[in-house]
Amino acid sequence: MAPSTSNIFGELRYEQRLIAFFDTLGWKNQIEHAGDDPYRIARLASLPRQFSRAVTGLAERVAGARITSFSDNVVASIPYKTEYLFPTLDALARIQFGAAAQGFLIRGAVTVGQLYHDEEIVFGPGLNRAYELESNKVSGAIYPRIILDPATSLKDFFPYAADFLSSDTHHTFINPFNYSFLERAFATDPISPDMRTQFEKSMRISVPELSSMDPMQCLVLVYLKILEDMENTTGKVREKYVWLVEQMKSSIVEIEALQSKGS
């Protein structure tokens, strides 16, 4: 008699988790551009390491945080509790800005759903939903941003003006490219010397100590870097760069207006 399925596989249950799925815009082109250059290969390797460090840091504040990555595809999840929402989305905003400072643009989605996630594997309907939101060419993230699932009530937990969220007609999304978020992020989590070195190399300029750098200066530097990278893109990838450049330009203009009014 064949053994029962339960005896072969045991039993597992999904858990309700907050799930983020994201990847890097133009990753294939980045790899092709790197070729066999050791520095460029090391630069590519720095990105998944950055993701891992960020989630490890989150795990120190949020019990049960997990990360699984393959190349530039990343799944990060935590047990779903409302008190975990702010630190998790805040961490994603920091990841997104840090990646942009190195010339990597992130696209992804955040949802709540049933998931099994341990040190080795991750799967479940919640991940299917997050992937659908990230990859759908009509209603998904489309541009380099991390959207909140419109089918959930995630945005309802932020009735105040969260400094890392913006909205358009279709989506609420994480937006780290604004002064108030950067000011708070720099004050609570200064960028490491290693990150400063990466930032400096990617910009090919001498960067002052970031702990004393004005967030507006940093935002402009990242804006100029993305604007430069955009010139090497074409077609639909270029359209996505243009969207982000316009978002950042609006933020810079708004900040300049506020600073002028205050002076």
Brief summary of the model shown:
With 263 residues, the protein is of the alpha+beta class. The chain contains 9 helices and 8 strands.
Write up this protein.
Helix 8 (about 215-230) runs antiparallel to helix 9 (about 235-260). Strands 1, 2, 3, 4, 5, 6, 7 and 8 form an 8-stranded mixed sheet that branches. The protein is an alpha+beta fold. It has one domain (about 15-260): 2-Layer Sandwich (Alpha-Beta Plaits). The mean pLDDT is about 80. It has helices at about 5-10, 25-35, 40-60, 80-100, 125-135, 180-190, 195-205, 215-230, 235-260; strands spanning about 15-25, 65-70, 75-80, 105-115, 120-125, 145-150, 165, 170-175. The N and C termini lie far apart (about 85 Å).
Task: Tally the structural domains.
Answer: 1
Structural class: alpha+beta
Distance between the termini: 84 Å
Task: Give the full name of the CATH homologous superfamily.
Answer: Nucleotide cyclase, GGDEF domain
Q: Quote the CATH topology.
A: Alpha-Beta Plaits
Q: Assign a percent range to the helix content.
A: 40-55%
Rg (C-alpha, Å): 19 Å
Proper CATH architecture: 2-Layer Sandwich
Unreliable residue stretches: none
- Mean pLDDT, rounded to whole units? 82
| Main beta-sheet annotation | 8 strands, mixed
How are helices and strands ordered from N to C? HEHHEEHEEHEEEHHHH
